[in-house]
Amino acid sequence: MLSVKRPLRVALFTDTYTPQINGVVTSVVNLKRGLEEMGHVVTIVAPKHPQQIPEANVIRIRSTTYRPQPEQRYAFPPSLRKILEFRMRRFDVIHTHGVVMPLIGLGIGRLLGVPVVMTYHTRIRDYVHYAPFYASMSWLLNDKRWYVRGSKTRTSVSRSLVSSLEHRTQVLAARVDQWLCNRNLEIITPAAPMADELVEMGVQSPISVVPNGINLELLSQPRQDPFPQYRAPQNAKRLLHVSRVGKEKSIDLLLERFFIIHKAMPDTHLFIVGDGPERKNLEAYTKQLGLEEAVTFTGYVANTDVGAYYQHAHLFVFASTSETQGMVALEANACGCPVIARAEMGIISCVLDGKTGYLIDPSDAETYAQKALELLQNEPKRLEFAAAAKAFAFVEGSHTTMTKRILEVYERAIGTNKGWADLSLTEAVSTVRKELIS
């Protein structure tokens, strides 16, 4: 238990918050809920959003649309007025989430002498395709450009340059990850494989493995079947995928695996819940595979409604290997929906292989399809997996359990924080800092 007797004043600095829908938002919302249920005071600090709704204890700071990823907002450094507001709230700890807000949170923490911890949600090098220079250079070097077409040499050189660009960008992103993590007093990762990887990268800050909690109460409420509203055979076996529709989620590979499943079992239908920059490309690829009648892209579904999709699906299918946890798999389990996933990164901690689903070698498409068919064609076995999945999720997915473990991290950070006596600041900035913390 915390040695601090009074309620803590916690600031959650996050790149994404409502009305956006993604795993980080879900994690932050559940943590806020858990902390408040235990009597602590939580302030959310997030970028301004055009569709935001006023909410108590949520501070929005100026932001702009990030062009390579239009649904994403990136924050500017906070104004002096905002910094003074942070100072008045007397935070005991700052907990950051994302990529940009952790930098801002670190700056505020150092300025005000507040301990800073970070949850490592996103492995930056898996998202280098959203870097502005990478997107621009990849477009210029695309082998479909007129100055590349018609020559095997030019095409080969173009592809080699793109590959080199991707590798160098990933190396740079890994160094940014290392630098950022080592500036925090504590690091939280949702799964052990990610913690191991951070250590290999040279991260020296203490690392705690704390799985993200899910809203078990909301997910377990019986819901009406949402699938009849879509154009799909009424008696089809429903395969479900829930995620942001981005390149890093490997939905193209999921479609290729579903092609094998559908060929062997035509009465199957894949529902892809979510939206994102790759949707048009994936819809075109679906037609190319001849699956346009067997695949439905639903678009975004509110967090409050997504439980209905899990509850009425026969199988949850996932192909991403970039997950630091893979919380959607845990959500599917909580609703009694067995999971088929590629065995890499954080998803491993959310599936009990052979009991709540199957974890498949990432490169083995045939086995992936075979295991999915095994459960779809054997209803007693699927129901056995469904029962085990529910029991597993209700132990591992509790947001209360997550909150208690994170409070232990806060306690250590508060206990080891010695302030920031030497920041190598100019005399003028040092004067401002002294006034702020006095």
Describe this structure as you would to a colleague:
The protein is α/β, with parallel strands linked by helices and 438 residues long. It folds into 2 domains: 9-137 and 170-213 and 399-437, Rossmann fold, CATH 3.40.50; 216-396, 3-Layer(aba) Sandwich (Rossmann fold). The protein is 43% helix and 15% strand. It contains 15 helices and 15 strands. The chain has helices at residues 23-37, 80-89, 100-112, 132-140, 152-181, 192-201, 216-220, 251-264, 279-288, 306-311, 327-334, 365-376, 379-396, 399-416, 427-437; strands spanning 9-14, 41-47, 58-61, 63-65, 73-75, 93-97, 116-119, 186-189, 207-209, 237-242, 268-273, 295-299, 315-317, 339-342, 357-360. The strands form 3 sheets. The chain has a 7-stranded parallel sheet with strand order 3-2-1-6-7-8-9, sandwiched between helices. A hairpin with a 7-residue loop joins strand 4 (63-65) and strand 5 (73-75). The longest helix is centred in the middle third of the chain and has 30 residues, at 152-181. Mean pLDDT is 85; it is low at 421-425.
Essential attributes:
438 residues, alpha/beta, Rossmann fold, 2 domains, seven-stranded parallel β-sheet, six-stranded parallel β-sheet, 15 helices, 15 strands, globular
Q: What is the assembly state of the chains in this entry?
A: single chain
**Helix-strand string:** EHEEEEHEHEHHEHEHEHEHEHEHEEHHHH
Query: What is the rounded Rg?
Result: 23 Å
What do the pLDDT scores average to?
85
Content of β-strand: 15-25%
Number of helices: 15
Question: Main beta sheet: strand number and arrangement?
Answer: 7 strands, parallel
When the domains are counted, the total is 2
